[in-house]
From TrEMBL:
This is Proteasome inhibitor PI31 subunit. Pfam families: PI31_Prot_N. It comes from the Eukaryota. Belongs to the proteasome inhibitor PI31 family. Residues 158-172 have a biased composition (Basic and acidic residues). Residues 20-145 form the PI31 proteasome regulator N-terminal domain. One of its GO terms (biological process) is proteasome-mediated ubiquitin-dependent protein catabolic process.
Length: 253
């Protein structure tokens, strides 16, 4: 079991609501609430609409999971500003889907959590054993759900934007090698296995025709540098070679 390095605050929170936790979804919501508190927000109540009893608190409200069969709904306010956020979570099969909306800008971020990856369903009443792989869950909440510092809430960087930024950094540093970046695909992995085409090809999602390979006047017998040795013919290129050659006997598969 991989445990987060500092879970003291979560342990206190979990102890306060432990008597009302009756399903793994409750435990995940409790964890996400804790991440909200650590990030400078305070819970002001449950439900979609403001109430006269609303007040900032690090604890969960008494009725925080009273509607768990349909939807979790919690409202938060920034500790040092007027920013208000509405957190909703709904259980779909074995996952819990979170939406976090800035009530002022209507901007929304989302996160899908595979419940069994992070909660031991038979350990709900034992804090030391209930959570697993908490570092990973914490990172997901911070990068995919919570508003990032320096950006408006809901405006999280997309995977494609991150890939583009990484490629720009690598292009500006010609001395960088593929091994310098842990996020790059392995050196012997073709560009068609990279869905974002980070090695020059289009990638299998954006370019099913594998536009990274030369098309016009290409001679397979010369090989593809760093990909295929001389004489090797990529699958699907043999017919192209046959069309370009006057002598079919020159083509070897």
């Amino acid at each position: 079991m991989l445990v987060h390095r500092n879970m003291a605050g979560l342990e206190v929170l979990y102890s306060c609501v432990g008597g009302s936790i009756s399903c793994p979804q409750d435990a995940v919501v409790c964890f996400v609430h804790w991440e909200m508190i650590k990030s400078g927000y305070r819970c002001i109540g449950s439900g979609d609409e403001p109430k006269g009893s609303d007040k900032k608190s690090e604890l969960l409200p008494a009725d925080w999971n009273s509607n768990r069969e349909e939807l979790y709904s919690l409202r938060y306010k920034a500790k040092d500003s007027e920013t208000q956020l509405l957190l909703k979570a709904i259980s779909v099969d074995s996952t819990l889907i979170f939406n976090l909306m800035n009530s002022g800008t209507q901007q929304v971020s989302d996160l899908t959590v595979n419940i069994s990856d992070h909660v031991e369903a038979d350990q709900l009443q034992t804090f030391d054993s209930v959570f697993k792989d908490t570092d990973s869950l914490s990172e997901k909440v911070k990068t995919q759900l919570l508003p990032a510092q320096g950006r408006a809430p809901g405006q999280r960087t997309s995977r494609r934007e991150e890939e583009d930024e990484r490629r720009r950094r690598e292009d500006s540093d010609p001395s960088a090698s593929p091994s310098d970046s842990p996020d790059r695909d392995p050196p012997h992995t073709g560009a068609d296995l990279d869905p974002f085409g980070s090695r020059g090809g289009g990638g299998m999602i954006l370019d099913p025709l594998r536009s990274g390979y030369p098309r016009s006047g290409f001679d397979p017998s010369t090989g593809i540098p760093d990909i295929l040795p001389p004489g090797a013919v990529p699958q699907g290129l043999a017919s192209t070679r046959l069309d370009q050659s006057d002598d079919p006997d020159q083509v070897r598969e």
